[in-house]
Specification:
homodimer; alpha/beta; 22 helices; 16 strands; 34% helix; glycoprotein (chains A, B); beta-N-acetylhexosaminidase activity (chains A, B)
Chain lengths: 552, 552
């Protein structure tokens, strides 16, 4: 590394290289370089290139032609015109496996299990033209590197260029879990919306879709053997996810390096199952709802009923077999005690078994988790299951912290691995006012709006010992959809959800001041690719990095 | 009116008739009625039907075929199937002018001047089939009635029906000004976005687009004789509104009963003019910006300079001649004194004329307003011009109250007519966090988010005497676009902006509990028509009026 490129690591990176998330190690020069009009991506020494990897290379090549992302300066690059047009050309990018020989597909690596994956890669783009080289130990690593390669370039009058060759990247994620959660129960999202979201996620190296597929309001998942639940519980016969849809989504995700962790939230958040199975639901649609649930409608699985427990375990077994992921969430949030107190059958079940409600919850949870463990899967739960209830969770259980980031230490203290998903940093739905009716002055329960800066500045290991810090698997932003649907999916999520993508790929400590210009690039690039990311600032500010900072 | 229909005025209206805004007088029955497959809209006794009115009839007919809006109940109308399919059919709607004879076009009436318009109409839909009748005194009234007629119907398996015939409507607006403000300077919106917004506005009888077309960040308006301003001050040569674009927008709006009130904000909010005319701008892009402006970049017209005053008056004259509206806003908000204190030329100009800054502002304002008054136009200003400065405003000047609804009474006390646009009720951009950079914990300056309920519950005559109440022309919701652009235009505006549409058409006192089901209909109908209105609640709630109310 020469002195100039060292200088550029600190000062040139931000405005001029639209890479997101920030690589662990990046060096750049100051030589203009453009892509040849016959630029191509090649594979070297790989027996049987997996089709999902070659497809990814094709998509990258296409984006290099279609992105047309102008540099975000007032002149949009015009002053670099002669440098760009006289620059040497890069004719190709060559993908190599460090190990050579055969390689698993991106898809199989994406779903093979948290912490077993190698996403590292290295990328060399020479200043003198010729060919760039991307190498990795795995197809998944090559896939991540392709994503980075696709972010090195701007467009000027049809020429795809960088002013910062040579470029060297050595990269690997700080955390194995980088997620995004989507709720498809409160409002339904067509498969095309989910696939577009998966594309966007992959562009910022998010590797998990936490699919909160069902809830109290609707049950769109068509589970083999349990079709009656969605027949009666989906909003309509067209607002469902069939097994074929799930296959489609899961395959699409895996080919983009994304594992789909589905959640069947239990025993709360299950009201709509009463439409097909009234025998399994306590306090269905009970009123006033506020006494029976955190939001309407009330209704929970009769956790003390042996029949309901068996039904639920079988449902979870059937649902989990639809997904290749090793992760499966059984939920477990916001259990309402009053619902069970007022449910004669639950009281009778408890009495006949001589159990407390907490003991029944333990039995219920053991039953639903054991079908997952038997299938070689890892149960994932919301924090209450670890912190508020008397449930014996398997040591391998992963805990999603959602109520408050202040609860992270308590979960770690219990020795559980955890995923950051705290409402005070990561909830994308906060700040849109209260959505319950007849409440003129109601505000969002988790006001204020959680900005990208807020998520970006989160410290994943705050208040943790070094040993506890090892329990942090990563984190995610989340979209609960009481006030969202296909109409605002893109703008409410993007580019905000890129904040946690960088936090958990690049590691904490990123500077919002330096990040903003790159995040503008993310937003403008997403729009070019058909994802309706919002403007974070007036375009005047986007074109002038730093000029709209609070202290500028 | 029989007893049943009287009953229905109070209890049947809300869930079953998707009319928005609420008519002044509506009676409904309980007889099913469906549209004939050959349903048509006819004109009776009108010499030379204006083409914009016949176009509106064609659009209405098309929407009746394409809306496919299912009733928002869990069964989506299935239980009414036999009633619907055995219902009598309505073969036509006949439009009549009360006066007969010739009629002006919708467009000419829309732009002829505030308070001179007659938007009243009456509509009779018989229960026994045959033909419905819409009558009005003007083409504009017929246009409003057509909009209402288009909202009476649901779809069931391809049949367009109502269960509530006969329907009688007598309607007229409570206020002459029902607006929506769009800022196209902070971020640019293509003409197609503006036209789609005009369509949506017309569907809820909003009759003014307050077009905040330019500001400090960009100057997209191509003004004849002043082309250099947009050449240097638009974000790019494609992010402009040419005179042809303006004609297109103004004509499109007028044909939909909408007058376009353009704003050239002066003397503040004009930084970008320094790109083409540095001689006219004080403190251009001065830093730290917070000392010179409320948001970056700083820069204001040199109001004490005779040359700048002449330049501005000529610019306003040229810009105003692009728009047929009788209303023109010269802005006048957020003038920063320090900018002028630190500007040597302004200080010199003031000294040579022996004027205070306020006296210079008065001279400047007289000059810019007199070109409007000479052209038969009414100047419109932000509240500071009436409340904070020593400016002699013409009595006809209209004041936009924006800082706080608490300032309404002070404006009225000065005898000015006013338009409600207060940030504490009507700002659509609030609640999205702070947008200035490097500010991790910054919140929106006007937190929290302004819900539709908040706007809907506003009292336009609070703290006003009866005489002062007559000064209230109406009101509007506003979208400032520091954090918005084409990606989120629809979802951040709709259906929220329908709240003020009903408030100022139907008059205050509407009940949010009764309004919500109709507003769901608005949102679902907008989506059917290609406007991406958001979900206000989970679909479960939308299908069950009242079930998700805070006290349900």
């Amino acid at each position: 590394m020469n002195l100039l490129s060292l200088f550029c690591v600190f000062l040139c990176l931000t405005p001029a290289l639209a890479i997101w998330p920030r690589p662990q190690n990046l060096t750049t020069g100051s030589t203009p370089l453009r892509l040849s009009s016959t630029f191509s991506i090649k594979f070297s020494g790989i027996n049987q290139v997996p089709s999902d990897l070659s497809d990814a290379a094709t998509r990258t090549t296409n984006f290099l032609k279609t992105d047309k992302l102008q540099v975000l300066t007032p002149d949009r690059g015009a002053s670099s015109s002669s440098a760009v047009h006289s620059a040497r050309t890069l004719s190709s990018l060559t993908l190599k496996l460090n190990s050579g020989a055969t390689v698993k597909s991106v898809s199989s690596e994406a779903t093979q299990g948290l912490g077993t994956q190698d996403e590292s890669y290295s990328l060399q783009v020479p200043a003198n033209g010729g060919s760039a080289v991307l190498s990795a130990n795995t197809a998944l690593g090559l896939f991540r590197g392709l994503t980075t390669f696709g972010q090195l370039w701007y467009d000027l009058d049809g020429t795809t260029y960088t002013l910062q060759a040579p470029i060297q990247v050595m990269d690997a994620p700080a955390y194995p879990y980088r997620g995004f959660m989507l709720d498809t129960s409160r409002n339904y999202f067509p498969v095309t919306d989910i696939k577009r979201t998966l594309d966007a996620m992959s562009w910022v190296k998010i590797n998990h879709l936490h699919w909160h597929v069902v809830d109290s309001q609707s049950f769109p998942l068509v589970v083999p053997g349990f079709e009656e639940i969605s027949q009666k519980g989906a909003y309509s016969s067209s607002q469902v996810y069939t097994p074929a849809n799930v296959n489609d989504i899961v395959s699409y995700a895996a080919a983009r390096g994304i594992d789909v962790m589905v959640e069947i939230d239990t025993p709360g958040h299950t009201t709509i199952i009463s439409q097909s199975h009234p025998e399994h639901i306590a306090c269905p649609e009970a009123t006033p709802w506020a006494q029976f649930a955190n939001e309407p409608p009330a209704g929970q699985l009769r956790l003390a009923s042996p029949a309901t427990t068996t039904f639920t375990a079988n449902l979870i077994k059937a649902a989990s077999s639809m997904f290749p992921s090793k992760l499966f969430s059984t939920g477990g949030d916001e259990l309402n005690e009053n619902c069970y107190t007022k449910d004669p059958q639950t009281q009778q079940d408890l009495a006949s078994q001589g159990k407390t409600l907490e003991q029944a919850l333990d039995t219920f949870t053991q039953a639903t988790h054991s079908v997952l463990l038997d299938a070689g899967k890892t149960p994932v739960v919301w924090e209450e299951m670890a912190l508020e209830h008397q449930v014996q969770l398997n040591n391998e259980t992963i805990v999603l912290v959602w109520i408050s980031s202040d609860h992270v230490a308590a979960v770690a203290q219990k020795g559980f691995r955890l995923i950051h998903a705290a409402s005070d940093f990561f909830y994308l739905d906060c700040g849109a006012g209260d959505w319950v009716g007849a409440n003129i002055n109601g505000n969002s329960w988790c006001d204020p709006f959680k900005t990208w800066q807020k998520a970006y500045s989160f410290n994943p290991i705050a208040n943790l010992t070094d040993d506890q810090a090892k329990l942090v698997l990563g984190g995610q932003q989340l979209l609960w959809t009481e006030q969202s649907g296909p109409s605002n999916l893109d703008p409410i999520v993007w580019p905000r959800a890129a904040a946690s993508a960088e936090l958990f790929w690049s590691g904490p400590g990123g500077d919002v001041r330096a990040a903003l210009p790159r995040l503008h690039d993310v937003a403008y690039r997403f729009v070019q690719r058909g994802v309706k990311a919002i403007a974070l600032q007036p375009q005047w500010c986007a074109l002038r990095p730093g000029a709209c900072d609070v202290d500028a």
